[in-house]
Amino acid sequence: MTTKINGTNTAASPAITGADTDTGLSFGTDTVNINTGGVTRATVDSSGALDVPTDFPIKVNGSEKLRIDSSGNVGIAATSLSNRFTIGDGDLKFFNSDAANNHRTTFIEFGNSSNRITSESNFGSDGSSNYTAGYKFGTKNYNGSAFETLTPFVIQANGNVGITKTNPGKVLEVSNTGKTNTSCCFMHADGSDNVRVMGLRSDRATGGTNAGMIEFFRSDGSKVGSIQSNGSSTSYNTSSDYRLKENVTLISDGITRLKTLKPSRFNFISDAETTVDGFLAHEVTAVPEAVTGTKDQVATADDVNDEIKEGDPIYQGIDQSKLVPLLTAALQEAIAKIEVLETKVAALEAG
């Protein structure tokens, strides 16, 4: 077997003498210690087909570093190759330094003509020492003329994480940007074990000190409600400050409206063994703001967000806490009537 150096045939060294013989080029030999600096050799097929190499290993200082097998699989620091590309113990690093702009960028892309998955690390890419961009993992979708860049997962240098949020201002921010028909978050406890779906803990919640657990905001970012806990209890709050309200009048027909309510006892179809007190939502006409939905409503189209299909029932709901103001007003009216009667009775008895 020969190899060519600068176009000239040269005898192979060492010569092929039998199966599994290594043949190729050696270079950088240390004649004092007899150490070969680098070796590129083809391993000949042990079947005896001496002209057909099956593996092509590359050795450095006598130790194999890279191998290409007969199937075209490539291995770095790995000799058993079952995949197209295999890396043994160690790190894989892609690094691009741009000292002029004080930033480093790592970029990996996988995909085809229709979609791509990208990975990017970008620190201070604005040309300053503001290291905030962090690590991005995202996808690119082809819109027919160009790839649209999306960044659904970001880890900033300060540790903040964003899901479809490119510049998260909190430890974790989740947004459904670009997916307006999909919920931001859905949690499911699989199986029948009694495990919590979500747990909330605040070290501030101790003694009588309240700690915010969940806050609710309207579209302009103004807070409209919260759930708070202290060392012994939890409160569910909705906006009620007088500065948020106008046209305030006292309820004067509490008893009249109260009498339209129809408290009932019933069981839910899904739990036939349990009887509870409550209301039928569509009958609570005295306090319409306590009821959500419409009587006998059904879905007119599939709704992936609510996991319902066309024709499915959309059930009404009720927030029974919203009945408290009416109950209070009716009770006050009743107390006032009782006090008038008591005064009259006392006057008759004294007379």
Q: Tally the structural domains.
A: 4
Q: What class do helices, strands and sheet pairing give?
A: mainly beta
Q: Give the helix tally.
A: 2
Question: What does the radius of gyration come to?
Answer: 38 Å
Strand content: 25-35%
- Cα(first) to Cα(last) distance is 137 Å
Task: Provide structural commentary.
With 351 residues, the protein is mainly β. The chain has four domains: 86 residues, no CATH class; 78 residues; 34 residues, no CATH class; 73 residues, no CATH class. The chain is built from two helices and 23 strands. The strands form six sheets. Strands 9, 10, 11, 12, 13, 14, 15 and 16 form an eight-stranded mixed β-sheet that branches. The chain has a six-stranded mixed β-sheet with strand order 3-4-5-6-7-8, with no helix packed on it. It has a three-stranded antiparallel β-sheet with strand order 17-18-19, with no helix packed on it. A hairpin with a 5-residue loop joins strand 14 and strand 15. The longest helix is centred in the C-terminal third of the chain and has 27 residues. The relative contact order is 0.04.
Quick structural summary:
The chain has 351 residues and is mainly beta.
Topology at a glance:
Blueprint: E1 2-5, E2 8-11, E3 22-30, E4 35-44, E5 53-60, E6 63-69, E7 74-76, E8 85-87, E9 97-98, E10 103-111, E11 115-122, E12 135-142, E13 147-149, E14 153-155, E15 161-163, E16 172-174, E17 211-217, E18 223-229, E19 234-238, H1 254-258, E20 264-266, E21 276-278, E22 291-292, E23 317-318, H2 324-350
Parallel strand pairs: 7-8, 15-16
Antiparallel strand pairs: 1-2, 3-4, 4-5, 5-6, 6-7, 9-10, 10-11, 11-12, 12-13, 12-14, 14-15, 17-18, 18-19, 20-21, 22-23
